[in-house]
Amino acid sequence: MKKEDLVKNILPGSPGVYFFLGKHKEILYIGKATSLAQRIKSYFDDNIAEKRSVLIEKMVDDARTVEWTATDSVLEAMLLEVNLIRTHRPYFNTRSKDDKSYNNLVITNEEFPRVLVVRSKDLSDKYTANEFKYIFGPFPNGTLFRAALKIVRKLFQFYDTSKPLNKIRSKMANGQVDFNRQIGLYPEVQSRIQYNRTIRHIRLFFEGKKEQIIKELEKAMMKAAKSEKFEIAAVHKKKIFALKHIQDVALVTDDKKLYQDSKNFRIEAYDVAHLSGGSMVSAMTVCIGGELEKASYRKFIITTCDGPNDPKALSETLERRLAHNEWSLPNLIVVDGNTIQTNVAERLLKKLSHNIPVVGVVKDEKHKPKNILGSRKLIAEHKDSILLTNAEAHRFAIAFHRKKRKI
Questions:
Q1: More confident of the two residues 236 and 404
Q2: What is the DSSP letter of 246?
Q3: I want to staple 248 with a disulfide (CB 3.0 to 4.6 A). Which of 75, 117, 126, 376 is the partner?
Q4: Would you say residue 12 has pLDDT above 80?
């Protein structure tokens, strides 16, 4: 598809979701936008492969048309995008993505259901299927998801306690629930029927059925007014206004910042694999703008180590990688390990006159991430991508090591 193909389309400046369609009208890619016009036109900028990825460049080449659905807010565009991707699983959305570290919103199957944030890998590892009533997601961008959840919480107050409400026993935990009620995070004391009505509205909202909620609230408002229960009618009226005028300025700001500052942000992660020093290999994985770039992955056979020496193997890997001037330099390097590994990487970068920040992912005894060392600012902005790329480097290195041992 070419830029001139857009001329016949009058693209709206409103938020919404867009669809790139192939020659058989199949959905190739789904995305959300603060401004549909700006976002769709950006796919036809020069050097799209460099600005986004080679995968996205191919998607645009394969596309024949673009369609879209406008929404009332960026928040609703975000939810609609996730629902449609989960339903249609477009090739260019699902390829090169590992959503195990992505967040999901779940509603528990309890007397007073809780609304929790659970990573995809934990849905089956830590919970059973009958513990959840509903699951929404995965949401690939943690920053935007957290911002969205704050907005949702202003519309609907819900419980997110670590334990079911009927299992909270300690005075401290009960005090925390009461405090959260006072500051408006948790609902005021309600009957099970009232609270389940709120949970139903949350479910409808995440399904993209806002208009259905508004109709129900309008009906309830009229009924309360007719019965001269004016305070209740006023509460419904306030909720209707909030739903019709969703305040998602923070989400709009975050979305624009993400697109402008992070679309080209390249993260490279490194990991070493061996068996007591034998068949030692390493791997490099790449994430650009939050998307894994598998075409840029690289494998290395370590030649300078006689025994198990992960820091030395890491140093060899980085030196060989940085000798490739034809490869784009990363904005951030992720190493698997503690200060020993980060210091090794930083010393080598300084020696080669590269000013590239380094973060280290520290693992527990089960090889699960427990801390990230490095710039707090970079970690806060790119935590999900750091963990995703690190996990991918470990997987890629182990797979290469096993293959080499079989040769």
A1: 236
A2: -
A3: 75
A4: yes
